[in-house]
Amino acid sequence: MPGRLSHIDWLSLPLPAQSIMPHRPDNAFVRDQLALRARHVNSAPERTDGAYVLYWMQSTHRFEDNWALRYATRAADRLGLPLLIHQGLDPTYEHANDRIHSFILHNARELATRAESLGLHYQFVLRRRRDDDRRTVDRLAARAALVVTDDFPTAGIAERTARFAARIEGRLVAVESHAIVPAALFVKEEWAARTLRPKVMGHLDHALTSVDDAPPRVALPDALWHSLDVDRLDLTRCDLSAEIARCEIDHSVPPAPLPSGRRAALARLDAFCRGVLRDYDTRRSEPADAEGSSRLSPYLHFGQLSAAAVARAAIDAVGRAAAERFLDELVTWRELSLNFCLRNARFRTLDALPDWVHRTMRTHAADPREATYSLEQLERAETHHPLWNAAQRELVATGVIHNVMRMYWGKSVLTWSASYADAMRHLIALNDKWALDGRDPSSYGGIQWCFGKFDRPWGERPVWGTIRSMSLERAYKKFDAAAYERRWNGESLGL
Ligand SMILES: Cc1cc2nc3c(=O)[nH]c(=O)nc-3n(C[C@H](O)[C@H](O)[C@H](O)COP(=O)(O)OP(=O)(O)OC[C@H]3O[C@@H](n4cnc5c(N)ncnc54)[C@H](O)[C@@H]3O)c2cc1C
């Protein structure tokens, strides 16, 4: 199953000659998905003396609809070995803070509770300080027949995976579970939603085929579990707040007021499908209506819930036609961002923008700005505009900004920075640090959209050039901006 398949009709792929798992035959759907989603990160062989297959959970923090776990389970069954699921959390990721740590740890507690009932062996290691032992996963890999991990382009995961692959001797396979339609089908960078939409939407029904997951055949022996040289966190008993307080991370970014975990995500999904979904097209455009969209992005970002589960629930609730507007965001726009981050290594910089944007930025680089703000002023919501400040306060207080306001928030910074490069840096820094759904492909897709990515040239204006402009003043005519302002400008920043 080496490498990725490309622009082929994967629905008509012949079955691979050798089944991944001979004892429990999979249907063609599962085999094709695994073939498309799995990438051999190195060329090392499987270790014949491996004691288990290791699934290193990095971005897909769930047991359901998890293609890396499916791949690892089948590999374990094929080799007649048990499966060990390992998740770790370090203090060294960019912007490591209480908000992100807390969301990950509370979900991990739920995973630990559920693992046993699902017949899975799951462990979590919290590295509290930078100089604590940092090679747990290397030691685990040294005893594994092969290591399977998540393939994810952002949040430092691609880089961490590449460094790990260069260090270990055994085989490493990375499997993509972020997209509903396998990202490997689209080998080139897509230009716009309109180029990707017909392709992903054409595959959607088939890609939503459900799979019955089963635990690995061979249980991990107790003796092996206890012999592993790891300092596991006892998630069911420990005091998570105390553990987070002990970590060498930024404690000035507090946990967001959003319950973490699959149970909370499913409750939110259920409420959305029963309620707003039918009126999503209109209600999503009203920022003062906090319930107007699914608000699932943090759960989707951390992989606590799969986009496939969300799409299935939406279609079951109202039918495909009535869910189409929502599916366009969940599938087309979300997977456009994934395609962008996978196919364009410069996704965090202006270099990722099309030529017409560079031309217009050059022309308008010296235009006088209405105002210029430092990153610190932006962070503290100290701009002249109350509507922008309200959006920044929503971000700091909750970890998200309403979709419509997120566009105004990003577009305004473009015009309030000394250079376009500063604007991009400031937006990425604010979003990565404060957003619970930040550091996601959709983060960089969304921010780059503010600079003209996926868009076309519009009429010429100062500073904007031909980039689509959005005026905070005009927002007051489009929605109840005053209500949104009242809601969030009352919120203390605590900074
Ligand atoms: C400047 C800027 C920054 C952004 N940063 C992020 C970010 O950090 N993380 C993030 O997930 N999204 C980001 N987006 C995209 C979008 O604003 C959010 O996904 C959406 O507001 C999340 O709210 P929701 O879950 O209620 O979305 P819903 O409207 O309920 O949509 C369902 C899901 O579809 C996906 N989605 C919706 N809109 C988009 C979009 N325009 N692009 C890509 N995916 C989309 C999300 O996963 C979302 O949860 C950003 C957009 C902009 C303009």
Short description:
The protein is an alpha/beta fold. It has helices at residues 28-37, 67-79, 98-117, 136-142, 157-167, 193-207, 222-227, 240-246, 262-274, 280-283, 297-301, 307-318, 320-343, 355-364, 375-379, 386-398, 403-415, 420-434, 441-450, 472-478, 481-489, and strands at 38-40, 52-56, 83-89, 122-126, 144-150, 171-175.
List its salient traits.
Serine Threonine Protein Phosphatase 5, Tetratricopeptide repeat; Rossmann fold; alpha/beta; binds flavin-adenine dinucleotide; single chain; 495 residues; DNA Cyclobutane Dipyrimidine Photolyase, subunit A, domain 3
Would you mind describing this structure in some detail?
With 495 residues, this protein is of the alpha/beta class. It folds into three domains: 10-191 and 209-242, Rossmann fold (3-Layer(aba) Sandwich); 259-343, Serine Threonine Protein Phosphatase 5, Tetratricopeptide repeat (Alpha Horseshoe), CATH 1.25.40; 350-489, DNA Cyclobutane Dipyrimidine Photolyase, subunit A, domain 3, CATH 1.10.579. The chain is built from 21 helices and six strands. It has a six-stranded mixed beta sheet with strand order 1-6-5-2-3-4, with helices on both faces. Helix 12 packs antiparallel against helix 13 and helix 17 runs antiparallel to helix 18 (420-434). Residues 1-23 have low confidence and may be disordered. Flavin-adenine dinucleotide is lined by residues 284, 293-297, 300-301, 329-330, 333-334, 337, 403, 406-407, 410, 431, 435, 437-438, 440, 442-443, 445-447, 449-450.
